[in-house]
C-alpha cells in the first residue's frame, strides 16, 4: 500500500495506480497461491477461500482507498498548481511572491516613467532595479528553496527514520513470529513469547502507521518542493538555476532514499506477510489438527503439546492412527502435489515470471526514471556548468567587447571632444568677435553720444558763457549806464544845487564822474565834452536867479535902450534915461509866435522876455533878449551868456539824462 | 555887465567930480597964484575938470564901440 503511495508520488500516470492494484492482486495471488498450496495440502480450501477472497477484496478496497487518498493528497498536474499545493507553496514561499510581486510591480511604474522621462538614467536605474530584483528574487528563491528543502529533508529524514523504525519493528516482529512459530518452548515461555509478539505487533503497527504518516508528509513536502522548483524553473531566473538544480538533485536523492527505504519496508512487510501467513497457516493447521484431535479425542484440551504425559494409550493410538491417516493423506497429497508439481511450478514460474516481469518492469521503470532524472540532473548540471562557462566566456568576450567599445568610444569621444572643442572655440571666437564688435560699437556709440553730449554741453556751456558774458557785458553796460545815469542824475542834481543867487557848485566833478562813467561811450563823451567850460569851472545859475537878475537887468536895459554904436554919448544916455522914465510898457507881454519888425523894440522885447521868463521859457527869453541891440545888448550880454550857458548845460544834461534813460531802459531788465 | 555899467557910472561920476574938484582946485590955485584971485580960473578949472570928466565918462561909455584901427604898412 505504501508502495502505491510512493509510486503515485513519483508523478506517473494513473494507470500505474491501477497496475499496482493489479500487482497487488497478483502479489496477493502469489502468496495466496502459496497459501493455497499449503492450505490445500492441509485441508479443504473452503475455509481458506473465504478469508482469501476477503484478503484480496480487502486489499483492493484498501488499495483503492489508498489510491484515492494519494490522489487527493498529491497533485498530478505540474505546471498548474492545485489549490492545496498553491496554498502550501504560498505559505512556504509567500515571501518569494511578495518579493517577486513587489519588485515586478515596482518595476512597471518606473518603466512607464522611463518612457516619459529621460530613458538613459531611468534605464540605468531600471537595470539596477532589475539587478536588485534579480538579487532579491534569487535570495528569496534560494531562501524558499532552502526552506522547502530543509522542510522536505526533515520530513524525508523523519519518514526515513520512521520507515527504518517500521522496518526494524517489522523485522523484529517477523523474527519473533518465526521464533514463536518454530521454537518449541515451554508454555509459559510461549505465552511470554506470544505477549512479546503482541507487543511487537503493536509496535510494528504503530511504527508502520507512523512511517505511513511521515512518508505521506514527506511525500507532500517533496511534492510541494517539486512544484516550487517547477514554478521557479518556470520563472526563468538564470542565477537560481544551480540552486534549482541542487534542489532537484536533493529532491531526487531524497525521493530515491525514501523509495529505497519504502521498498525495504515493503520487502520486509512482504516477508512479514509471508511469515504471518505462514503463522496463520500453521495456526490454521494447528487448529485443524486440534479440531481433529478434539474431534477424535474430545477430552483432550487444546494445548496438546504440553499434554504428552497425560494422554492414554487409546488416545495415543487413536492419535497415532489419526496421525498415520494424516500422514497417508499428506503423502497422497504430496504425490499428487508432486505430480502436479511441475505444472504448478510452471504455472507458478509463469506467474512468477510475469510478476517478476512486472516487478522488473516496474523496477526498470523506476530505475529508468531515476536514471533519467539523474541523467537529466547531470545534463542540467552540465548544462549549468556549460552555461556558466559560456557565461564566463561571454562575459570575457563582452568585457573585451566592452573594453574595445570603451576604447573606441574613448577615441570617438576624444575626436568628438576635439571637434566640439574646435566648434565651441569657433563659436566662442565668433561670439567674442561679435560681442567685441558690439562692445566697440556700443562704446563708440557711447563715446559719440558722450561727445555729442559733451559738444552740446560745451556748446551750451559756451552759449551760457556767452550769454553770461553778454549778460555780464550787458550788465556791465547796464552798470555803466546806471553809473552814467547816476552820474547824469548827479549832474542834473548839481544843477539844482543853487542858492538864491549863487551859482551851482562847479560841475567839474559831476562831469568828471560822467566822463568816467562813460569811457567808451562816444556819444556821452561828446556830450560831456560839449559841456561848456564855464559851467564846469564855475557852475551855472539857476533859473530863478537868472530871472531875478533879469528883473534888475531889465531896468538897466530900459535905461540904455537908445544907446548903440552910433548913439553912445552921454547926451544919448540922458535921453535914454528920460525915455526909460517916460516909457511905460507892460510888465509882461506874451510874445507872438512870429516876431514882426515893431516887436524888435527893446521895451517890447523886455516885456516879452519877462513874460517868457515868468512862464519858465528861458530859451525864448534868451532868444528875445538876443534880439536886443546896442548897449542893451551889451549890458544883457552877461546875462545872456549866463542864460546860454545854463541852457546849454541844461540841454546837455537833459540829453545825457535822456540818453542814460534810454540806454538804461534798454539794458535794465525788469526783475 | 550890468553891474559894470553901474560901476562905470560910479567911476564916471567920481572921476568927473574929482576932475571938477581938481580943476576947481587948480583953478583956485591958478587963480590964487597967477590970476590974482579971479574966479574965472575956478570956473575954468572946474569946467576944464568937468569937461575932462565928461569926456572921460563918455569915452568910458563908448569904449566898447570904439574901433581901434591900425595902419598896416603897405609893402
Automatic annotation (TrEMBL), chain A:
Renumbered residue ranges of the record's region Disordered: 17-57
GO cellular component: MICOS complex
Biased composition range(s): Basic and acidic residues: 24-45
Membrane topology: Single-pass membrane protein
Keywords on record: Coiled coil, Membrane, Mitochondrion, Mitochondrion inner membrane, Transmembrane, Transmembrane helix
Localization (cell): Mitochondrion inner membrane
Coiled coil region boundaries: 313-340
InterPro entries associated with the record: MIC60
Gene Ontology terms: biological process: cristae formation
Stated family: Belongs to the MICOS complex subunit Mic60 family.
Biological role stated in the UniProt entry: Component of the MICOS complex, a large protein complex of the mitochondrial inner membrane that plays crucial roles in the maintenance of crista junctions, inner membrane architecture, and formation of contact sites to the outer membrane.
PANTHER family per record: MICOS COMPLEX SUBUNIT MIC60 (PTHR15415:SF7), MITOFILIN (PTHR15415)
Quaternary structure annotation from Swiss-Prot or TrEMBL: Component of the mitochondrial contact site and cristae organizing system (MICOS) complex.
Protein known as: MICOS complex subunit MIC60
Taxonomic lineage from the root: Eukaryota, Metazoa, Chordata, Craniata, Vertebrata
Gene this protein is translated from: immt
From TrEMBL, chain B:
Protein name as annotated: MICOS complex subunit MIC10
Keywords noted in UniProt: Membrane, Mitochondrion, Mitochondrion inner membrane, Transmembrane, Transmembrane helix
Function: Component of the MICOS complex, a large protein complex of the mitochondrial inner membrane that plays crucial roles in the maintenance of crista junctions, inner membrane architecture, and formation of contact sites to the outer membrane.
Residue spans crossing the bilayer: 16-35
Chief place of localization: mitochondrion
Keyword Transmembrane included in the entry's annotation: yes
Complex and partners: Component of the mitochondrial contact site and cristae organizing system (MICOS) complex.
Membrane topology note: Single-pass membrane protein
Protein family (similarity comment): Belongs to the MICOS complex subunit Mic10 family.
InterPro entries: Mic10 (IPR007512)
Keyword Hydrolase part of the UniProt annotation: no
Organism: Betta splendens
GO-annotated cellular components: MICOS complex
Subcellular location: Mitochondrion inner membrane
